[in-house]
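Milestone 3.1: sequence recovery, worked example.
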């Protein structure tokens, strides 16, 4: 789940970002409304944690402008403006929740999780596929009743795959949903997390590679040649019509390329 934190005080922003990442969220950050506005134009966020008083003005007015244009991302105001009138103005102006400073980080995490769940209303709190179960409320994954120890990123990728079970999810889609702006898209980070997830889920495999397209969560019996891992013959020695290994002109076994 991807979150945006907009806070101009660097130390406080670092604490909030670290706390949300530790809770399993992918978090982007901005120090003013101008930067936040650009991020909201190009990314989809399940929640935005927004300070009201920013260097470039009152964020309430900017939020109202975006709401008038149809922007629907849930917003939690995290602000020192804590009077009753301030809270009413914030909620009437388009915020979905309002948490005054000082605040307790565990409470902020719970409020963000609640808003993010509400935004992703198409998904239940409990997801199941075959003998695999994901409890979003407890952050627990079980296979055949056995509790598995997954990293937050592995849970996020599994969540994305479970949400579209039996459909192909591209590497780019996984990256957009499960990583934030600080991650390096050119690295093999997605493949590494999927590999770790496969290993921890154990046999029979449920996460399949769709070559040239992405990944799919599917039943082993329903996996066809286009989805399953390539047979060993295509990754090792080339075979002749009689099944024997071909050799090159130097007498060494040939390989497919």
């Amino acid at each position: 789940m991807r979150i945006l934190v907009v806070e101009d005080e660097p130390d406080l922003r670092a604490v909030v970002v670290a706390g949300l990442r530790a809770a399993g969220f992918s978090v982007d950050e901005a120090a003013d409304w101008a930067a936040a506005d650009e991020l909201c134009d190009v990314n989809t966020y399940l929640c935005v944690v927004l300070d009201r008083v920013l260097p470039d003005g009152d964020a309430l007015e900017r939020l109202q402008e975006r709401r008038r244009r149809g922007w629907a991302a849930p917003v939690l105001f995290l602000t020192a403006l804590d009077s009753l009138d301030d809270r009413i103005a914030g909620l009437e102006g388009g915020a979905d929740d309002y948490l005054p400073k000082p605040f307790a980080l565990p409470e902020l995490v719970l409020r963000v999780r609640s808003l993010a769940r509400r935004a992703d209303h198409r998904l239940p709190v409990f997801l199941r596929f075959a003998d695999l179960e994901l409890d979003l409320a407890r952050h627990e994954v079980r296979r055949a009743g056995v509790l598995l120890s997954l990293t937050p990123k592995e849970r996020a990728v599994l969540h994305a795959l479970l949400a579209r079970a039996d459909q192909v999810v591209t590497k780019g889609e996984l990256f957009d949903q499960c990583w934030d702006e600080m991650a390096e898209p050119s690295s093999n980070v997605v493949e590494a997390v999927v590999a770790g997830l496969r290993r921890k889920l154990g046999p029979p495999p449920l996460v399949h590679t769709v070559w040239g397209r992405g990944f799919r969560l599917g039943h082993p019996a329903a996996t066809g040649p286009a989805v399953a891992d390539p047979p060993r013959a295509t990754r090792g020695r080339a075979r002749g019509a009689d099944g024997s290994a071909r050799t090159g002109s130097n007498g060494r076994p040939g390989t497919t390329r």
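The domain at 126-222 is CATH 1.10.10.10 (Arc Repressor Mutant, subunit A). The longest strand covers residues 2-6.
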